[in-house]
Structure to design on (252 residues):
C-alpha cells in the first residue's frame, strides 16, 4: 500500500476562530498585479493562530523559546489516543490515556502523542470552546511515558473559558487593541494552564500542537497496523512563544 499524506491544518483565513483574547486574523492584499505587477498578501495574526505549536516560553519566560528547541521535537512517529465520545468539557484522565501511553512508551524516544477528541467538527462554532481537556495528572503521565510532543484536535489541552455571549464583542475589540502578552496574562479569573505547564516544562522542553483537524484517518490507519508519522514544523520565528504550522501526517 502506498503512503498517504493527510493535511491536519486548518486554513488561515480572515476572522478565523482564535483563542479568546488572541489577536484577530486578517489577510488583505498589500500589492496586486494591477498596481504593482505582483500579488502579495499582508498578514496580521498571532503566534497562536490556527493550527500551531506552543514552545515552553509560552507559559514561562525562563523556559526555551521556539528557536531553542531541537527540530526533532516537531516530527516523529505518532500514537493516536482515541478520546472521541467524551462529553463537553470532560476531563481526560491517566486511565483513559493508558493504552496510548503504553504504545508510545514501546515506540521509543521522539514519539508524538495525538489526542483525538473529535472536537475539530465544532471548528467555527461556540461549541469549539467546550472541548475536553487534560487533567494535570494526565499531563504528568504523558511526560512520565517519555513523550515530549503532544497534539490535539481542539483549541487547547487545558480548559478554555467561555467568554459568554455578552463578552464576545468585547473580546474581539480587545484582540485588536492589545498584544497577545497583555491579553493572555493570567489573573484571578484566568485559567491556570496546568496541563500546559506540565507538558511544556518536561525535561528538555516539550511542545504542544493545537487546533489540528480531523484525526479519524490516523486512527483508522493505526487500527489497521499502518505506521503513522507526523510533521509539525513551525515558522522560524525568533524568540517566539509558538508559531503556526503546516501539520501533515504520513500514513505508511
Amino acid at each position: 500500500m502506498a503512503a498517504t499524506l493527510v493535511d491536519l491544518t486548518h486554513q488561515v483565513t480572515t476572522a478565523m476562530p482564535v483563542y479568546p483574547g488572541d489577536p484577530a486574523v486578517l489577510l488583505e492584499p498589500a500589492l496586486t498585479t494591477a498596481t504593482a505587477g505582483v500579488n502579495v498578501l499582508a498578514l496580521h495574526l498571532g503566534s497562536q493562530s490556527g493550527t500551531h505549536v506552543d514552545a515552553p516560553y509560552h507559559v514561562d519566560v525562563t523556559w526555551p523559546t521556539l528557536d531553542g528547541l531541537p527540530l526533532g521535537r516537531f516530527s516523529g512517529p505518532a500514537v493516536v489516543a482515541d478520546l472521541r465520545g467524551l462529553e463537553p468539557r470532560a476531563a481526560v484522565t491517566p486511565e483513559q490515556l493508558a493504552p496510548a501511553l503504553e504504545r508510545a512508551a514501546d515506540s521509543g524516544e521522539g514519539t508524538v502523542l495525538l489526542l483525538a477528541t473529535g472536537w475539530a467538527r465544532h471548528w467555527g462554532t461556540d461549541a469549539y470552546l467546550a472541548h475536553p481537556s487534560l487533567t494535570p495528572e494526565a499531563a504528568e503521565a504523558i511526560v512520565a511515558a517519555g513523550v515530549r510532543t503532544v497534539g490535539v484536535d481542539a483549541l487547547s489541552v487545558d480548559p478554555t473559558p467561555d467568554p459568554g455571549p455578552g463578552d464576545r464583542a468585547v473580546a474581539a475589540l480587545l484582540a485588536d487593541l492589545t498584544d497577545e502578552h497583555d491579553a493572555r496574562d493570567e489573573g484571578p479569573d484566568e485559567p491556570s494552564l496546568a496541563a500546559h505547564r506540565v507538558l511544556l516544562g518536561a525535561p528538555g522542553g516539550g511542545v504542544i500542537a493545537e487546533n489540528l483537524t480531523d484525526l479519524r484517518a490516523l486512527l483508522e490507519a493505526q487500527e489497521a497496523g499502518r505506521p503513522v508519522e507526523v510533521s509539525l514544523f513551525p515558522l522560524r520565528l525568533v524568540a517566539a512563544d509558538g508559531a503556526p504550522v503546516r501539520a501533515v501526517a504520513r500514513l505508511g
